[in-house]
Specification:
The complex is a heterodimer of chains A (323) and B (398).
Chain A (H helix, E strand, L loop, with lengths): L5 H6 L15 H11 L5 E5 L3 H6 L11 E3 L5 H18 L11 E7 L1 H5 L2 H10 L4 E6 L39 H6 L5 E6 L3 H13 L4 E6 L3 H4 L6 H10 L6 E6 L2 E6 L1 H8 L7 H6 L14 H22 L1
Parallel strand pairs in A: 1-2, 1-3, 3-4, 4-6, 5-6
Antiparallel strand pairs in A: 5-7, 7-8
Chain B lengths: L1 E2 L1 H12 L3 E4 L6 H12 L6 E4 L3 H13 L4 E5 L1 H16 L5 E6 L13 H4 L7 E4 L3 H16 L7 E6 L8 E2 L5 H8 L6 E4 L2 E4 L9 E2 L8 H30 L6 E4 L6 E5 L3 H14 L4 E6 L1 E3 L3 H8 L4 E6 L10 H11 L6 E7 L8 H17 L6 E4 L4
Parallel strand pairs in B: 2-3, 2-4, 4-5, 5-7, 6-7, 13-14, 13-16, 16-17, 17-18
Antiparallel strand pairs in B: 1-8, 6-15, 9-10, 12-14
Chain lengths: 323, 398
């Protein structure tokens, strides 16, 4: 696998131009920009309906310097399947506009709604069929584009417009769907998690994702200032805390001889070495308005402790897998 | 060769050798994807067969493929087409000349696997060209011609080839096929229109060298103009389809049109309709003629774009026209074909009396005797100078 240097990445033109209409502090443009720094050459991008799509392509403007297509909400993986199959057919025939490309990095971007929920079937189908493409989950943990509704990726106790913190019910009552484990269970060659606080890690993992033969899945935690209710300048800080509290560990999972082999990366490696450096989940929760009801008007230690116990349990399970 | 309608579609697709076929099994279409899978397994095509997990993904994959510059074919029926519904509109608005065979089947519920036109009639506003076939020969020919209609530089639209479930899809007929090289030469390579993108002029596809943004957010200030382009494209298809039919006649000796009139020159009563039932109607017309009744038939092969001018010409001075159709529109003044035929004649000075006959829902058989009964009621209207019942349901128990 070829190593990608920062120098090389800095020289490469951005795939997304400035001037798009994503919110101040939005992490989606940061993740997309860094992921696409790692492409090997010819690239085609498909986006599911969502913030990234609507804010970068208001006709007649486009922020994309790559061939880009959006069709619907739930079918990014199916679109990518069609593009990849066409490229393969043209290679086989030795004719057609894509025939000349020895590599074609096909990247599908989708949010948590488009992945955990409505696009889950199309994703599972594409992974099972083994198309050579990279799926990037931009997980801002709710339907932000339609106004902060809960999804299968919304964490426990988060207040959203369809799981509001009320007088009786304190926000979302269900835990986040274990999407990475579900994807890994498909036996695909590469799965990794990303946080904007570790940009080199994103580039290296993205390059690996493009290079493997078959589907790759990149899961980025994507803090949303509007939906998570924190000041927009804190996006990277929130991205970092998600990792430092072990709510969103950074790791990769490579298929070796048919077995998933887990490896911690960047910020999470340090915590595994020095468990005392793991930050309490409260630090992460407290800085976000979506968890405000856990602290005011009265402190809900029961819920905070429940979340801490869940995080500890999940982190322990991951450590066992890493071995 | 002996082919049923599904096999005729699959055989034509094989000879075209598209870049991808993405499809999902559903009765009565399944034979198409089964046969095509065999062609792939035996190395008779270069096509990538994408065995998707749903019809929604089938058409979504075709959209990705066609946007990437490929030729994409799929097939479906009834509920499968309903599941694709969202993407049918997206395929046509992205101006992607995908070809799809639809083995017409009644829409659930209640669940039923047999033929009517409720599925494709539900897609009549989706922006696809629609061709309805009477027999397997027409299925074969349409599945070759469709590429040239859809890819015509003035058109750039997806095409649905509609074949009646079981009546055609599973019924073996003798089909005259063309040699592979003749088909290959006829369809040639996919031609692209050139467009001005934000990175410069380019062929209309996901071009790595000159990137295009396809499927952007399109709001109040441009959406309407883009819809007008689809309106124009359908009007262009009215000109392009006869050109393609003429070219195809040169290589095949079979000449198709929008409408196929039968014994219309001196007809006093006639039926217009779509699909395989037209064969039965033709048989009934012959019998009625033997009885001295001046009956005629207008088989409509192309429903989208609707051949308005040609219909007016073919109808001429006909006194009474019956519409025989296999779809109901609940709560509407009549069935979909009836409403459109009536709309065509509303402003005309010369117009026939028009009555609607909805038949065969859920695969209910329509016999020559029933069709003769329909003609009798048309004769009755002629005699009285008015239609006593605007919409009748033929072959249904009370």
């Amino acid at each position: 696998m070829s190593d990608l240097t920062l120098r090389e990445a800095a020289k490469k033109p951005d795939a997304i131009s400035p001037g798009h209409r994503l919110c101040a502090g939005c992490d989606e443009s940061i993740i997309a920009r860094i992921v696409l720094k790692a492409t090997r050459g010819p690239t085609i991008v498909t986006s599911a309906t969502g913030c990234l799509e609507v804010a970068t392509t208001i006709f007649p403007y486009s922020a994309w310097n790559l061939p880009w297509i959006h069709t619907a909400f739930e079918n990014a993986a199916a679109n990518a399947s069609g593009i990849e199959a066409t490229w393969k057919a043209m290679r086989k025939k030795g004719k057609g506009p894509l025939a000349k490309y020895e590599t074609l990095d096909i990247v599908a971007f989708a949010g948590d709604g488009g992945t955990y929920d409505i696009g889950f079937q199309a994703l599972s189908g594409a992974l099972e069929r083994g198309h050579d493409f990279t799926y990037v989950l931009m997980d801002n943990e709710a339907y932000m584009n339609t106004g902060i509704q809960r999804s299968g990726g919304t964490p426990f106790a988060a207040s959203t417009t369809t799981s509001p913190a009320g007088r009786v019910i304190p926000g979302k009552r269900e835990w986040k769907k274990p999407i990475d484990e579900i994807v890994i269970a498909h036996g695909i060659p590469y799965v990794a998690t990303l946080s904007a606080a570790w940009p080199m890690d994103i580039m290296q993992k993205s390059r690996k994702a493009f290079e493997v033969d078959g589907p790759a899945f990149l899961h980025a935690i994507v803090p949303c200032a509007r939906g998570w209710r924190y000041p927009p300048e804190k996006t990277i800080e929130v991205s970092r805390l998600a990792v430092q509290t072990c709510l969103f560990p950074l790791y990769e999972c490579v298929l070796e001889e048919g077995r998933p082999v887990y490896k911690l990366s960047a910020g999470s490696t340090a915590i595994a070495r020095r468990p005392e450096s793991k930050k309490p989940v409260e630090e992460y929760l407290e800085m976000q308005g979506r968890f405000r009801h856990l602290f005011r008007p009265e402190r809900r230690d029961d819920l905070i402790d429940e979340i801490q116990a869940w995080v500890d349990h999940k982190w322990q399970m991951l450590l066992e897998k890493v071995g | 060769m002996g082919l049923n309608g599904d096999e005729a579609a699959a055989y034509a697709a094989k000879q075209v050798n598209p870049d991808i076929v993405a499809a999902y099994p559903i009765t009565p279409q399944t034979i198409i994807v089964e046969r095509f899978s065999e062609y792939v397994a035996d190395g008779e095509v270069d096509t990538e067969f994408v065995a998707v997990e749903s019809e929604h993904s089938a058409l979504s994959s075709c959209v990705g493929a066609a946007a990437a510059g490929g030729r994409a074919f799929t097939a479906t029926a009834a509920n499968g087409l309903a599941l694709m519904w969202e993407i049918t509109y997206i395929a046509s608005s992205l101006r992607l000349p995908i070809v799809m065979a639809v083995a017409n089947r009644a829409l659930s519920g209640p669940i039923n696997i047999h033929n009517d036109h409720s599925d494709t009639m539900g897609a009549r506003d989706s922006g696809w060209i629609q061709i309805y076939c009477e027999n397997s020969q027409e299925v074969y020919d349409a599945c070759i011609e469709a590429w040239m209609m859809g890819e015509h530089p003035c058109v750039q639209l997806p095409v649905m080839v509609c074949l009646d479930g079981f009546t055609l899809s599973h019924t073996m007929e003798n089909v005259l096929t063309l040699p592979d090289d003749v088909v290959q030469e006829f369809v040639g390579e996919r031609q692209f229109i050139r467009v001005k993108g934000h990175a410069g002029e380019t062929e209309f596809r996901l071009n790595v060298e000159t990137p295009l943004t396809m499927g952007p957010l399109d709001l109040q200030d441009y959406y309407f103009e883009h819809k007008m382009q689809q309106v124009d494209a359908m009007n262009e298809a009215l000109k392009a389809i006869p050109e393609v039919d003429a070219e195809y006649a040169k290589v095949s000796g079979r000449r198709y049109g929008f409408l196929h009139p039968y014994k219309m020159d001196d007809a006093e009563v006639a039926l217009i309709g779509l699909g395989s039932a037209m064969g039965t109607v033709r048989y009934a017309v012959d019998e009625l003629r033997d009885e001295g009744i001046k009956a005629g038939l207008i088989k409509m092969r192309v429903f989208r774009p609707f051949p308005e001018e040609e219909l007016v010409k073919v109808v001429g001075d006909l006194p009474v026209l019956g519409v025989l159709e296999k779809a109901a529109s609940f709560g509407a003044p009549g069935g979909p074909l009836y409403e459109e035929v009536k709309t065509v004649f509303y402003d005309r000075e010369r117009k026939p009396l028009i009555a609607d006959f909805i038949h065969g829902l859920g695969g209910r058989d329509t016999s020559p005797k029933m069709i003769k009964g329909v003609y009798k009621s048309l004769l009755d209207a002629k005699e009285k100078g008015k239609v006593s019942e605007k919409v009748s349901f033929v072959g249904v128990r009370e």
